[in-house]
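Figure 3 (text version): structure tokens given as input.
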């Protein structure tokens, strides 16, 4: 192509805009990357196969509401990162991995159901792909349904969080007692309540009475009329609470590193599964675009003969469709004896 056509050929014929419109219909970055990477293809078998894939997907989009379209998430940057020992996925990344693996599982089940595949060309894309319940089972042992690490993800985490809960209860009980006393003496407003500043539990006190409460000032209101004091009676309890939070963070990292170490051998297979997810997303985007422009599957022959019947330029079709106008279709035929078509005058555009 590069020896025949100029570098700006796509822009000249408007194909760059087609890429944009297809990309907009992708569900995730994996599909969009496929759109960008798509090149001109002159291999008859490949082109025929790709067109057949889009035609099957078009049928799915029009006729089958059970096709999975949720949680197409690109986790490949996370998976590439944890190829290095000592690295790990955080909670959010782990939750994204779990949800998107469910989508891949649903797609494999969709195409492989039944003895004879309903969509053979798309089903062929699932060849050599596997779903690894080991990975999702490990995630389920760590995360709850909201994507947070479970208290029982490890015995040590359960102990730490139990201590945190107990310590928070002690701090809360003590701070409430101090606040109630400050309110009775008029140092704090009657409707005041404890809050947290820089991870420390504090009480709001009027600025004029801040020296009446022994403690450390951590913040003040925008007006300066209220200060937030950490009473000396709870400083040690807050220190212990902070140390427990640090211990919790260390244990969370240990759990996540352990998980990442466990799935590292599966990363090549997982990346292959996500490449499949991107391919399906790309094909679906093309099918949706085909539906929007009322496209039909062409009949291909492996010889130099082109017969385009009742053709409409897709971009012109979409533009006039928005204006409530019709495109005048065109028939074009080129063959070995008549192989050049010259368009001039007002139709040259």
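Below: residues designed for each position.
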């Amino acid at each position: 192509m590069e020896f025949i056509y100029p570098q700006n050929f796509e822009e000249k014929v408007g194909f760059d805009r087609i890429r944009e419109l297809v990309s907009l219909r992708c569900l995730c970055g994996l599909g969009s990357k496929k759109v960008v990477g798509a090149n001109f293809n002159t291999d008859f078998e490949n082109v025929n196969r790709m067109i057949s894939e889009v035609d099957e997907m078009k049928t799915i989009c029009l006729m089958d509401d059970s096709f999975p379209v949720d949680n197409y998430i690109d986790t490949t940057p996370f998976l590439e990162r944890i190829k290095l020992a000592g690295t790990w996925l955080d909670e959010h990344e782990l939750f994204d991995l779990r949800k998107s693996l469910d989508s891949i599982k649903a797609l494999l089940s969709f195409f492989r159901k039944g003895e004879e595949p309903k969509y053979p060309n798309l089903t062929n894309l699932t060849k050599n792909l596997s779903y690894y319940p080991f990975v999702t089972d490990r995630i389920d042992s760590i995360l709850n349904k909201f994507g947070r690490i479970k208290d029982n993800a490890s015995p040590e985490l359960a102990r730490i969080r139990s201590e945190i809960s107990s310590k928070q209860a002690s701090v809360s009980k003590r701070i409430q007692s101090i606040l109630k006393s400050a309110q009775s003496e008029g140092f704090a407003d009657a409707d005041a309540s404890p809050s947290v500043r820089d991870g420390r539990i504090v009480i709001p006190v009027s600025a004029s009475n801040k020296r009446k409460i022994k403690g450390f000032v951590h913040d003040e209101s925008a007006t300066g009329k209220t200060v937030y004091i950490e009473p000396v009676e709870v400083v040690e309890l807050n220190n212990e609470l902070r140390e427990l939070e640090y211990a919790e963070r260390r244990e969370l990292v240990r759990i996540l590193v352990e998980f990442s170490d466990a799935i590292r051998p599966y990363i090549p297979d997982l990346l292959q599964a996500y490449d499949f997810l991107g391919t399906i997303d790309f094909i679906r985007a093309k099918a949706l675009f085909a539906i929007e422009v009322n496209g039909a599957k062409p009949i291909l022959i492996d010889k130099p003969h082109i017969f385009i019947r009742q053709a409409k330029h897709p971009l012109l079709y979409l533009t006039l469709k928005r204006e409530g106008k019709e495109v005048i279709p065109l028939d074009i035929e080129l063959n070995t004896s008549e192989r050049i078509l010259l368009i001039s005058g007002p139709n040259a555009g």
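The beta strands are 195-197, 200-206, 215-220, 226-231, 306-311, 330-334.
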